[in-house]
Amino acid sequence: MTCPAGSVCKQYVRYQSKDKAGNWEDIKTSAETRIDKEKPTTSIKLSGVEGDNGWYVSDVTVTLSCDDGSGSGCSETYYCVDQSDSCTPSVKYTGPFLISNEDINYVRYHSKDNVGNVEDVKSTEVKIDKTPPTAWINPLPEWTNSSDGSGDVYFDVYWNGDDGPTGSGITSYSIQYIIYNRATGNYVTNNCGTADWCDWITRDETDPKQEIFGLLDNPENVEAFNNHTFLFRISAKDNAGNVMDYSINPPWENTSIDVVSPVSAISTVSYPGELIVEAFWQGWDNESGVAYYDVQSNMSGSWDYLTDTDGNSTYHTTKTSGNFSVSSDGIYYFRVRAVDRAGNVETPWKYSSVLVDVSPPVAWMEEPYNEWMKFYNFTVNWSGYDTGSPPSGIKCYDVQWSNDTINWNYIQYNEFGDLTECVLLTETIFGLYGFTDLKDGITYYFRVRATDNNGNIGNWSVKNTTIDTYSPVIIVNVTDDKGREIIEGYVPADVKNITITSMAWDNISGIKKHTIHYWLTQNNKYTYGEKECGEALPWGDWSNCSITFAYDEDTVIKYYVKAEDRAGNVNTTPIRFTTSHPLANFVIHQAAIGLGDSILLKVQVRNIQETVDNITISIESTITSAKPKFENIGSGDFEIQADGKVLQVYNLNPMEEREFFVRIYSSEIGTYYLNMTAQSNVAQPGLIDTDSAKIIIGYPPSFPGLAPWSILLLVILSVTIFLII
């Protein structure tokens, strides 16, 4: 007998028997047979105080009920409670039970009938939060002076809250305020029209937990008044609807407003014969009160805080007087400012000065600046100041020169023979009047001292410089890999590399900088470079260096050497060339372009002769249809002839190089050569130079997405444009 799963079936058996004589028994019917394959069903009922958003704000009573329909009947029910929705029902249900745990709880349950059918486990969420959240306003400063510059006072209020690890979570905050007038001792009327607590703001948990209190341009804010105290209290509401009472967290946060800066005064006195200054200061503030003073002096030339003779610092001091040691005689300035408890800083400072005896003046040589000098007459100047008290000022300077530091002489500073003995001058030209026999390699010393109007004479200050008017000597040599010297820039065909060697020498101040500058045309590239050769010691030391270039067939090297000594004298060699192309060459010797395109080839034209030259350059192609032409681009005096096939370059100076360009059009695919012939017409008539470049023309790149007829149309248009040109 069969019965479908999940069903309850009723079945009967009818039967009879027959004997050997063929007699049949009457048909009999069995008793009813019932088959139960249906699982029982359990329902749940929750009872408690409901809050918001599906939360309960009280303990919850859970009632489970089992129903087996027409089946065998419920046998027993089991349940369990956890917070992860993963427990196995193991507690036998005997009646309603209570859940008091504050959290998101899960009741998991199922029942079994009398024949053993077990219901699938069910789960019901029971969210309980009986406790209001906690919120607080972050501590405010006792005093605040924040202002937006318009006279409206404002400050930031920060808050936060917590609903515990098992709470439903805070949804909003509400903050109230009340205003207390410190001058009258009364609470004052606020924006709510009362002198009691007034609603200020309500913010969601997702909003920033910060608000500015006091800006008049924000409708949610109120004006904060000077000399008033503002008290704040906060309430919070959670997702379950629990609300924190305003009164559970006094004393409330508060801050008092003070935007008026304090006022101070200072006086200073000194006593004869003592290197001590006594200072007295005091301050006034009618609101938050003076918190401290800052007292400074400019004893070191800049304003600094002090330490008095008792070891107390004047930075943020609460003292109102002090004695201060000074290191020397002079006029000393003191200043004070007061800062109140709200942080208002007095401006401007209040000043006082005091006089302490006298000191001699100080003078120093300023020019000559350098240890080396490249002129026979040059500026000598000096400066000084008086440290006396009161400063009597510089009366005059004594300025002297010597070439041995033993015999000193005053400088004649005009054609009348006047000397730099006790003068008010601060500058003169040495070597222009009187002694003019300045010589290279001689060191000249200068010294100055000052006398103030009180007769105090300062110490001498000395400076020196050595004359060097000669430029450095440069020797340049160019050789090939076989040790042969390259003459006039021509390079034999068998050369593998070229070495440029430079030596620089200065017999007085010495080499400061020594550089080989070069331009290299090689391997389809045109590059500039420098070779630093280093310094050399004064009095005749050499600075040497060399640079070697691999020399391919079409290499062109243009170079010059520059050397500078420590006195600033410079020597620069003329530009020279080392090349197998004395007249002209292509910069690159192989190019690939697409059909219908064009390209510019750079041509370098040079004159390595000793006289001005005119050079004729002609070009021709191994494919007639290529039509190479010189572009009208270049410098100096030139002319394009023969429909662009000939370039005439005029008045090319010795060792001068110019650049020109050849335009190549591609009208048919293939590989061809562009040949160039250059001829000297003036400097060395009959001198001929040749060069060539390999041009490869191919089909343009494929155009994804274009039909073949579109590509053919582009090629036809390119050829048409070429023929028109």
From TrEMBL:
Coiled coil: none
InterPro entries, A to Z: FN3_sf, Ig-like_fold, Ig-like_OmpL47-like
Organism domain of life: Bacteria
SUPFAM superfamilies recorded: Fibronectin type III (SSF49265)
Keywords: Membrane, Transmembrane, Transmembrane helix
Keyword Transmembrane: yes
Membrane-spanning intervals of the chain: 706-724
Protein name, as recorded: Fibronectin type-III domain-containing protein
Species the sequence originates in: Aerophobetes bacterium
